[in-house]
Design brief:
Elements (H helix, E strand, L loop, with lengths): L3 H11 L6 E2 L2 E9 L6 E7 L1 E3 L2 E5 L10 H8 L2 E6 L2 E9 L5 H11 L2 H8 L6 E6 L2
Antiparallel strand pairs: 1-2, 2-3, 2-6, 4-5, 5-8, 6-7, 7-8
């Protein structure tokens, strides 16, 4: 099973042929710019389509802190996304209170553990919308 750095490398090498389909769900690669280092960081994340955009969940496995990639997006919402062999620039935003319940439901249908992660932390877990920049 692919995970972490190996997952990113295989996904990039194969245009998503390896790594897009993962544990019964689908994964994209999100590249953010480090808020302190300025370096690019690429993270594999479970996603769902949302119209022309994509949603991902900043769960960090239910930890008390947001994942680094989400903190990076708060500092700079410009990112790069790879879905299979399609690479594009995107602008990230946190789902609104009105949008979140429907998006959360779509994400927990494909990865039910998100509900468990939310139970482990007092922090509201954000849903992030990645909107392609044209």
């Amino acid at each position: 099973m692919l995970y972490g750095k190996e997952h990113v490398e295989r996904y990039q090498q194969t245009g998503g042929a390896e790594g897009h389909d993962w544990n019964g769900t689908t994964v994209l690669l999100l590249t953010t710019r480090g808020r302190r280092s300025g370096r690019p960081y690429t993270t594999p994340l479970i996603y769902q389509r949302y119209g022309d955009a994509y949603t991902v969940v900043a769960s960090n496995g239910g930890a008390t802190e947001h994942p680094d990639w989400y903190a990076n997006l708060l500092a700079d919402p410009e990112a790069e996304v790879q879905v299979k062999d399609k690479l594009f620039k995107a602008r990230a935003r946190t789902a609104t209170d009105e949008e979140k319940p429907g998006m959360w439901g779509a994400m927990t249908r494909v990865w039910p553990d998100y509900d468990n992660y939310q139970q482990k932390t007092d922090r509201p877990i954000p849903v992030v919308v990645l909107e392609p920049v044209t």
